[in-house]
């Protein structure tokens, strides 16, 4: 063994080599942090287009490729798949879209992060390792596990879940910390449930060595993830000005070009379809959020209220996110089985089509109830009837002329505790084609089949009680511990669920002009459980004082009064002065929420489009 003297200390040759290696590594890292990091997102949900992965790998010049697959209903579907086959329970789209490109991903040095593991990340890694081996690509994989709490469902209380015995999934929303650590050990990181934003924040912490208690940077990295997590929604998808968006067949997927300082530019690959401008990015900023000053994540509590957007070249520069210390808890989200549902969807054509559809629906329900009574089956638990094509979804805001449409769609959804009852309902539908109204053409998709009706539940769980593990493809394993740091108490004033004062110090000029809301603003809506949020962003900053005064929470509540399940509806309004925007949160307005609602818009996607026709009245001429 050779020894060397350095700074009055003796070192072995092995220690010297380790020391030099670390210095070189740190030197390289210090140089690379001067260069922006490019993160592209190729999936916004399980079932997104496979074309996004080759687009971003071939043309994105990426450092990181991230893919988001999971939702509450996806988790339950994956649990059911794993029960049928222990090799399932993960998202096969990941292997099918990323697998063939592993040689190119390796060649370009792209690191991959995906929550494709679902409820069986080990099987997902096994499948990906087999693809890599077959392709003769030397890649190291890592898993982040510990989120799956289904095995401990027996410990759930009725305060945490209304029916613990019927739980079908239960997962913690993990943060970016274990992802950033796993990236130190592997080229491809596979997780189960985590926050969508963590898929991007993890790579940024890893690359720039951001300190976990620099909460403004944590909020900025989370905003990167929030903007790109839904794929093409940030690059022209579901945009208010959809007529201006070209090339949907080749939608460009989002790329965030991030600096170590926290600023970033959102863009897309050149020569792709879609659109990136202030409007498309602002709409995604307000998508599926509640209070923009208090966006709660496991890594940080974000304040997006003063985020600013500046169009720059082929993208939009984003800055201004602020952060506060996180809480000491993870959010646990899960689903439980509350019986079954079936949906009848039938075209009805001819004069008085709406009246025919309603009469057919009532007859089917009455006949089914008669059979239920004979068989000693209980009544339906819930029913939702709507005739599409007549603007019934608009309630009192419907245009009367459309109520007389001569071609409509009957939507009749029913909920029952017994699958047999819904099989009876589905069978009786066929008889309507010969025994009820003329013009009933077909049952779309055939006879309605019973499907599980899953309800979402959530609760908080102390972080120190959760064991999060990192495992690599070469057999290494470690337990990840969240770093100690400042904590925001869960019951802090920061979390009060109240909107801001709607009083305004701005004086606006009145007049005789009226404008549709979509003439003055971009609008996007989404869901959070049974709540719908509608974000409204002014096209011109000069319109902001007008909307602050003319678009109040009370007016929005009355406009959507028919959508609330409570006779005392609640609509909150929050301001985002950075983008000259407003965010409205309509409590309990989705008929139970995305995974349990019986209505045809369970995620509130159409709410923004309904509000687009709201009239801003008695103002001066604007253009």
Question: Characteristics of this structure?
Answer:
disordered N terminus, five-stranded antiparallel sheet, 623 residues, single chain, 27% helix
Would you give an account of this structure?
The protein has 623 residues and is of the alpha+beta class. Helix content is 27%, strand content 26%. An 11-stranded mixed beta sheet has the order 13-14-10-9-3-4-5-8-6-20-21, with helices on both faces. Strand 9 and strand 10 form a beta hairpin. The longest helix has 22 residues. It is globular, with a radius of gyration of 27 Å. It starts with a strand and ends with a strand.
Outline type: globular
| Count of runs of 4 or more consecutive helical residues | 17
Helix content, binned percent: 25-40%
The assigned structural class equals alpha+beta
Major sheet strand order? 13-14-10-9-3-4-5-8-6-20-21
Overall average residue pLDDT: 92
> Taking Cα atoms only, what radius of gyration do you get, to the nearest Å?
27 Å
Low-pLDDT segments: 1-33
Strand content: 25-35%
Q: Give the N-to-C terminal Cα separation.
A: 83 Å
What is the makeup of the main sheet? 11 strands, mixed
Oligomer: single chain
